[in-house]
Amino acid sequence: MLVFNGCPIEGELAEFFDRDECAVIERLVQVEGEPWTFNAFYLPITLADELLKMAPADFDGFSLHEYLHRSRQLLTARFEHQLCMRHFSSAACQALGIEKTPAPCLQWQVYGYTREGKPATFQRFELHPEHRPIELKTQLER
Asked: pLDDT at position 51, please?
């Protein structure tokens, strides 16, 4: 797992955060024996100072959203999901040990918002072709 401080961002992501720099935590995640998935987790640098001091092994089983809620009282109350086909990023290829090929992968992008509707986090998952189907559930608000 790699942790970067002060990665430049641009385009839609810079507009989402209303800034041109974020902290990015890149890691591999795995659920119940599925193939490893590459995850890039973006958040404002001001929220990441303690995270950037952690050892990579400290992130095993670590929930970044729970951390933000406990330590910063930042509750991510709403998520917007986007699924798209893109090529694996260079970082994902390196982390997953695969050669960059013209074959696309499924990217799952998750925009997180506070209760006030302000941008809080952004995540990008790059899924291995052998990953099980993604299950998205919705429910009506009461």
From this structure: 86
